[in-house]
Protein 1
Amino acid sequence: MPLPLTALWRLVRANAVTAVSLAAAAFSFLLADRPGDWWRAIDLRTLNLLFCLMFVVAGLRECNLFRVLAQRLLARCVRFRSLAHTLVQLTFWVSAVATNDVALIALVPFAVYALDRLGLRRRLPGLIALQTVAANLGSMATPIGNPQNLFLYTAHLIPSADFFAATLPVAFAGALLLFCLTHALRDEPIDFRFEHRRTLTHLPQAWLCGALFALCLLAVFRLFPQTWLFAAVAAAALCLCRTALRQVDFALLLTFVGFFVFSGNLGQVESVHALLTRLLEEHTQATAAVASQILSNVPAAVLLSPFTDDWRGLLWGADIGAFGTPIASLASLISLGLYLREPDARPWRYLLLFTLLNLAFLLPLSALTLLLG
């Protein structure tokens, strides 16, 4: 295979979900009755907010914010159970305010480092599986916790009070169960010290990104114009924080564009439109949850959204649908990839623990939404 084709294949493998979304978008032009209207399906508001949030969080991560926070909390731990509680709860809360992907990318390596220093690497699969569940739980609590929440909150113009009334009971019921399972871990004393004390760096950038994050929150809750937010973030990216700009996940933005176009063109096919509309009228949450197991919850939410006004069922289905196969959530794939990089990784042990743990959340949280609905 020639070198350019080899490089292209590596790029596709590294961004498989993006490649699938763009291929699906291209194929959908063969089905659409009016392919010239494809651009109408692209939700620029969601893309703008997602870009701004990813940039700001990348800038804060560059300043060591999450590492400093983790180090200061972990320094107080003298027993394994308290270490596990700290890592799991920190993952939950960081996910709520900085997305589940960022929480896992920042904190799973901390778990690896801590257990490696303590000689407890055998306990790594269980701890990373708990962190993954914590990330998916925390992210469902807020509109900015994960991409599908941000998309649904923006596309369906969900009132903030209604959104939190739907998500907070489920997220905190899951958090209670998560606390109990973490507390059930076998405890033992530990003696944990850091070789190097982390400190905040690039303080002007940290303050700037903190201010931009506040503007992002105001824009998400429709209290600040999105065009002004984009202008402020673009100015910061071009003039002050160019390295943070390179850390933005542009592949995720392309994934959204691909599935926006795919769902828009698919909606023009009468038979498909009728089928999805009927399924979502009768079983919105179940359809979204099953689709999440196959497509992952972000593409599932984007694909199904145009065919229903039941945002609550779609939101619950996509968020709770994250608890299933590793494919069900992009965040789960991130933590799996981080674990598999370890030289002594035991994939089947991790997948067994991950599956059992996810079933322990999928079933009761689904039952809870039936009561809330």
Protein 2
Amino acid sequence: MFEVTDATFERDVLGADLPIVLDFWAPWCGPCKAVEPVLEQLEAESRGRVEFARLNIDENPLTAARYDVLSIPTAIVFDGGEAKTSLSGARPRSHYERALAEVLPAA
């Protein structure tokens, strides 16, 4: 999972060749820490088909505000420079798998 900032968001996320799952988080957020291993597992299993990134909302408030991220954790799936789907709150793995299925072709 790579780090994204307000300054790199356009290039790293909107300009990406692959779909991106962007995790909006903060170091003090307990539920964010609970979601992190789930996202890391999905990243390992889908390598080469989707990328995973994270954005610290405390250090990068502009992108969070741009996408109306009002609570964390929030994960937004971007594809082709557009936000396709958003998941707010700590969710089970199956919720993230369904969100990814919308942008990934069937294997």
Protein 3
Amino acid sequence: MKPDIHPDYREVIFKDISTDFSFKTRSTIQTKDNIEWEDGKEYPLVKLEISSDSHPFFTGKQKLVDTAGRVDKFYSRYGNRGKKE
């Protein structure tokens, strides 16, 4: 590998701000904040709005979407304007 062309690959803390769920992983993302982790060391902090701890798919609180109902609603609102007979 060429020297001085690769970003700094280091351990980073990702924190879901809605549930206070945090996890440590490695990343090249640049951050301005730092946080002290469970091991007593300080790591760069990335704040997330949604993670696996708060995402509806992973929490089981997923809202089912009725796609057939959406199509019928579209046709009732706009009809078949573009349809040529």
Protein 4
Amino acid sequence: MNYIEISVITTTEATEAVSYILEDEGASGVAIEDPNDFILMNKNKTDWDYVESELIEAMGTDVRVKGYFPETTYSDDLIKSVQSRVDLLTDFGLDKGKAEISSKTIKEEDWSNAWKRYFKPFKAGEKVVIKPTWENYDIQEDDIIVEIDPGMAFGTGNHETTLMCIKLLERYVKKGDKVYDVGCGSGILGIAAAKLGADNVLCVDLDGVACKVASENVEVNKEIDKIEVRNCNLLDAASAKADLIVANIIADVIISFTTQTLEFLRHDGIFISSGIILDRRDEVVNELKKHQFNILEIVQMGEWCAIAAKRD
């Protein structure tokens, strides 16, 4: 089966919103090509040894968010709908950038594999290393390896929002913890939590494709005894209180979701939220404080921030 790739040229600020639009319109997968993420991820000079120079040049400077739609579901009305929703992002205070939209037909084997040449092993935190399943990596002392094949979920872990979550998980996950990973994507954060010592992890996502990919990655990492993956909305599948909840989503969802965290987070439990554009930081902080959370720290990378908060 062939796919139609709809590509939106936008800004780093608007990537999460554009991704949501494409997913909401029915995309089977979404890929983000942001040169800013790539440069940030490879800020250490030695990191560039993993990357071919022509790949760096090929990325250019534009941020592209690409959605992949089955050819059978594509129509001109779909393009019009995506364009109109992207154009409305300015009404929400987001810089939509060029907002140029294009489409082309992609063979399934091409779109499933061509992007893999950009995904190399990298250190996401002090200890956690994200390694594609098809790449070799010389393990160093104290490395915690998370092997990932994002498949159609396209969660490679190199976005600032994910990197900040991993750094915070390294600080706050304790041995024996129960952890909920909300909006798990390809399962990176849940798997990292298990490898950092959590005994029980529930990964949830509204996207069935993401859940399938996350389950496969859990198996690859040999963490099936610790991790359960469920296809549901937010914490609808939760049944007990967690020691830590991590949610890498967007500011609006975090704000609306804060009340539910109280139901499923122990007193003194940690809530790590990410996917928050800097302009929305104060809104999220105020909502957390309003719902019995003390702010432990706020970390920032690029135009994004993540918040670690403790429940009273």
